[in-house]
Amino acid sequence: MPDANSDHHTLAIIGSGFAGLGAAIRLEKLHGGSVVIFERASSLGGVWRDNDYPGAACDVQSLLYSFSFAPSHRWRHTYARQTEIRGYLEDLAREHGLIPRLRTDCAVQSLTWDPADSRWLLETARGRSTADHVVLATGSLADPSFPAIDGLDTFAGPVFHSSQWDHDVDLSGKRVAVVGTGASAIQFVPKIQPMVKSLTLFQRTAPWVMPRNDRPIPEATRKRLRTVPGYQRASRAVIYAKREIKLLAFQHPALMRIGEKEGRAHLAHAVSDPALREKLTPDYRMGCKRILLSDEYYPALAQPNVSVENGGVMKVTPTGVVDAEGGVHDVDAIIFGTGFDTSRLPLTDKVFDHNGQSMAESWGDSPRAYLGTTVAGFPNLYLMHGPNIALGHTSVIMMFESQIQYIGRAMKRAIHTGGSIEPTPQAQAKYSSDIDALTDGTVWTSGGCKSWYLDPSGRNSNLWPGSVLGYRSRAIRFAPTEHLVRTSGGPR
After folding, report:
1. 4 CB-side CA count, 13 A
2. Is the model's pTM score more than 0.90?
3. What ranges do the domains of the chain cover?
4. DSSP state of 274
5. Domain 152-215+222-237+252-336 carries which CATH code?
6. Please, which residues have CB within 8 angstroms of residue 3's CB and are 6 or more apart in sequence?
7. Which PANTHER family does its entry note (predicted)?
8. Which of helix, strand or coil describes residue 103?
């Protein structure tokens, strides 16, 4: 049993974004207040704390990008801005009494399972803690991805990633290179374009960009959301249904031709120059990579102080960037909009089973988890935003809610037996086979592109390839026969 003087908790949560806070709130009856939230940064918020670049906003409607159990009537735009979302998370933490449970500037360095006491040993920046159960809510979009480019360390000017925006750098009148055309780049490029002397965009693959149609939410609508019973729930249901219907095109790629027609029209309307339009026209099926939303991106690229270079970057010199064709571009600053390292979940290389093997080692090149949440051999450990939890068509917050329901049922079973719980290897393998079958023939594997959805083995280990309702129906149906339950100190 844990020492009376030890820092022991029923539940330890690592990460204070949507997933971590949601788990702390919804699992309250099980942890009974014996919960700690470890956060490596100095404040809560996850990706919505880190990504405060100009123009940062969600690409899922505000009403859907929030918890169903904690609706907000304060959204001021169809698509919430970063400051609004971070404020929403801070309000959640305060309203549910989580601030005293939050340990900031406290990175978790390793987690090791102790089978004798059925608990996890956590080494942190503030010493050792123990917990009966651990929720790993670091998310899959936590660590920025920097491409390996020769000479980058020799560049004389400022260099930073969109998720680590350097607000001390004044870009006014500067010659700026932007590397990458991901979801962040299409948001910050239109914001910095008017202030810079020149902007050179280096893209390897042109993204599909669709109209955003963002609008301020009128005060009358916000009042209805606040005062009319059921109005917000009904509005949310309509948005959910519309997005779920779009899944059909991802599952049956031929239907994507309809969206591609709209995407090309969106491009043609904003860009009159045929040469630029050709550079910005994707050469793969829509949906194979993440579909981006913007009303400002294409018009910004059509401005005279912007140039687009295909093929990416060959190398960097002290004064500029050399493109794939050998062309030299003198610049004063370099900004990376190259997304995140999704090759592994953060910390999984520091999570060790009773034999000392890390979760990352057990996975190899292709992460697998039962319901994207629990992993055979790692008892009482739950992954939020784990393998095959990300979505290509709607809000991942709904997946988090379903994951939390499953975690609650698993925790309850383990607590009842006074021991531990994990999926059987057979159940995990069966679930992975189901994922492969659902993925087969979809746009993600047949769309003719290379995306972060697929792991180094070529397998889809990131996206849930079905409907949110389909995942929810699996998550809420707890199957005892698909789990191993052991009493404390019991044999492996």
Report:
1. 0
2. yes
3. 8-143+341-487, 152-215+222-237+252-336
4. H
5. 3.50.50.60
6. none
7. FAD_NAD(P)-BINDING DOMAIN-CONTAINING PROTEIN-RELATED (PTHR42877:SF4), L-ORNITHINE N(5)-MONOOXYGENASE-RELATED (PTHR42877)
8. strand
